[in-house]
Each structure stands twice: as structure tokens, then as C-alpha cells.
Design a protein that fits this description.
six-stranded antiparallel beta sheet; globular; Immunoglobulin-like; 12 strands
Length: 186
Amino acid sequence: MKWFVDTRPVTQVNEFLGQPYFAHVMIINNSKYRDKESTANKVIALIEAYNLKGELVLGPIIGRWGDSPQPVVRPFPPKSGEMQHTTTRIASFVLQTKDSPEVEISSNGLPKELNIALKWPESSECYLFNNNSYGYTRFENPKMKLKSNNHKIRITLSGENVDDTELWFLLINKGKNKGFSINRLS
């Protein structure tokens, strides 16, 4: 598999929350063969954040693929008049979304977006981002807060037909009212 990097602010977000910045990496399966046998199957991404000294500060967390279903965050128990089996079905969807991080990356050269981090323009703080972020106000899971501006990010990919298994990036939080930069390290 071959990869490339892209960062940009998200363009479609809840109008009441505003528009956050997301740092993400685009993964491409650029096999020399464009056939079904070259498809990367059951691909999982684990993400870890290290300080610039190389010490692990957060993770590993299970990565969130940008085109995967968003988890449904639903209060329990069910609301008055709601049928119990409906709530159970929704709860199993939440678990399935959180616990089924595998994707297929076909060898057609089209990118798969892997979410890395999120920050809001009016804040200098940033957070690693995955499906577990959806249960928190503004997706800010306090357990995934990155406490400094610069981090080495290690992405470990595993799955069937996956050659490159470890990718390193430098994530730079540019501060309040600014986004991110993310660059591949050797």
C-alpha cells in the first residue's frame, strides 16, 4: 500500500457547534495490480501520540476511518413510549460501530481517510479523534487531549495484504485560530 497526507478543515459540521479543524491522513492502496486479490482487507489502524523526546503520551487508540458510519449517541433507558427492542438495536449499532474498525481498501487508487485529531478555531487545545469522541461535547474526549503543540504520531496498519505497517508523522498544532500541519517523518 502507498499513502499520502492531506489536512483541511471539515466543511460540513453541526451549525450549532461551528467548524472544527481535523487532521487526517489519506491512505491509498496503490498496488501495481488493480484486481480483487490486491485489495487490503480487514485493515485496522492504531494511533499513538509521542512527545518530541519519543515518549508515549497517548494511545494506542483505534483509528476512525472517515467514511465509516458515525456512532449514534443515545441516552438510556428508552424514552417513555419507545419500544425496548428499538433501543437495543441502536445500542448494538453503537457497539458495532465502535468495535468494528476494519475497512477494505481496494487497489483502485482511491484514498481512504483516517481521522487523527480535532481542534476548534477558538481553542489552542487539540484532541486525538475516533469513534469514542462522539460521546463528548464538541468531540473533546478529555482522555485524548494532547497537552503540547507538537507530537509524533505513529499509525500502525494491520490487515490482509497490507505491506507498510508503521507510518510516522509530525502533527503540529498551530495554535488558537489556526489549524494543523501533518508531515511524514522518515
